[in-house]
Fold this sequence. Notes:
By secondary structure, this protein is α+β, with helices and mostly antiparallel strands. The chain is built from 13 helices and 6 strands. A hairpin with a 5-residue loop joins β5 and β6.
Amino acid sequence: MSQELRQRHHCAYCRKLNTLWLKTEDSLSALQCKRCRLSLGLQQHRKWKTLDPAAYVHPLDRQALQALRKIPGIDHILRKLLGLTTERMYRVFCQASSIQVSARQYAHLDAKLDIVAHTLGLPKPELFVSMGDFGGIEAMTMGVENPFIVVSVGLLERLDDAEMLAVLAHEMGHIHCQHLLYKTAADTLLFVLGAVMARTPLSAIVQTLGWPVQLALLTWRHKAELSCDRASLLVVQDPDVVMRALAKAAGGSLNDELNLAAFIEQARNFERAYVADFLDKAWTLLLASRSSHPFPVWRISELLKWREDTGPQGYAALLQSGLEP
Length: 325
Ligand SMILES: [Zn+2]
Ligand SMILES: [Zn+2]
């Protein structure tokens, strides 16, 4: 006959002390923390007091950003384009149409955001849950002076708790890697090129950016995702979860029809078949695409390469530098 035993367990992610009544056959990994809703089966979660993003920024992101920064006066041009008005507009739009996450509202998301902030050694930004999406974009980080994150309720419904942690960690990666001036400009450009803001006054301002600036912004934008997928893995510390989140965010839901192992195999084959040179040309065909995070197979193949890199620049070496709780 099974017997119930009172046990206390610290959640490795958020450190909450959970009091549980466990049957002898219960496995901790099947139980959720009452605060962050992540699995209580994890024994150890590494965190960094300070983590230099240069330790994990993807080389393609670094190169594309260097190319962007070589454009004379680019920072000044973008700051002028975005200005306080644009940032405020995005914030007001979010505040008016989304639910702000707090300890009293979507408390489990608030706890997950705390985990990401503590893991990467960053201040916690504001987080909103939006009822819709932004022209197909379901998670994004906006703002230069005062960044904030928005996730769609649709994403929240499709992803499980660990996968949501992966999404939040990816978004905070944009803050950690100091992407936000370029990222907000690139997203604004995309909104203007797409349908979301095509007829707003911002459209005219964006058109004043020359084609070389637009091209540099949009090609960098895809490569920036690779660094943030690494940030996501550093926080989640489980590659399968990050890859599942990527697959789900890209293709809807993972079910019997969409098998993660097959998706990973596809990513490995993709890596063998294509080289970055070809992809660079392909980006130009995708510039007007409204897809926020394209090429999940490519992103998974890049993430697998980093995870399997056993050198000092690889995932394992960096994870070891994290502190145990
Ligand atoms: Zn927890
Ligand atoms: Zn991103």
